[in-house]
Design goal:
- The chain has 196 residues and is mostly helical.
- 55% of the residues lie in helices and 6% in strands.
- Strands 2-1-3 form a 3-stranded antiparallel sheet.
């Protein structure tokens, strides 16, 4: 839902609540074209999208679970890269990436930071600001569209996996019907009751 409400997110290919590997579910996005450069807006939108699952938990269940841990990790990594590698913060176009330790020079495991402790605190503050700002964006979208959020959740419970067309219909307030398995079950039940 967050991705569909923001201008520079990749289109949704499918959404699933079927667990795979360590994930409890997945939202698959596919870009329309190959992208080699990402704008600051696009990265911020991606962070907001990644935070949507945690926010939905808080809105619907009034609690937090570990289910969003991978999304939080990915959002934090993007925010850190914005600050430390891509110069997309108020700290300016400076690369704050830590240098790699050189085991051949006896520096294995050493902290090769090229900046002060004060700068490290500023970096942490910038990362936190990026996360909190995008959290607020996603929270506003989901709170303002809580009825659609409930419909999307119910559709996922019914279908387990939704494709792009189904997601767009739900967002537009349209009915996507019921899974074929349930239709067959209802027809079988009707046939059984009329034969009795």
């Amino acid at each position: 839902m967050v991705a569909l409400k923001l201008p520079k997110c990749d289109p949704i290919h499918k959404v699933s609540i079927i667990p795979r590997g360590g994930a409890l579910g997945v939202t698959v996005t596919l870009p329309k074209e190959d992208i080699l450069n990402y704008s600051k807006e696009r990265i911020n939108n991606q962070i907001a999208m990644l935070l949507g699952g945690r926010i939905a938990e808080e809105i619907i269940f009034k609690e937090m679970t570990t289910g969003a841990s991978n999304d939080i990790e990915r959002a934090t990594e993007l925010a850190r890269n914005m600050v430390c590698q891509w110069g997309m913060s108020t700290l300016g176009p400076i690369n704050f990436s830590k240098g790699q330790a050189q085991p051949f020079y006896g520096m294995s495991g050493a902290d090769n930071s090229t900046y002060s402790e004060n700068t490290a605190l500023k970096i942490d503050g910038e990362i936190k600001t990026i996360i909190e700002t995008n959290y607020g964006v996603a929270q506003k979208i989901l709170t303002e569209n809580v009825e659609i959020l409930h419909k999307m959740a119910q559709a996922l419970i019914d279908w387990e996996t939704l494709d792009n067309e189904q997601v767009l219909k739900i967002m537009a307030g349209e009915d996507i019907g019921i899974p074929v398995l349930e239709i067959h079950t209802e027809i079988k039940e009707e046939a059984t009751s009329t034969n009795a």
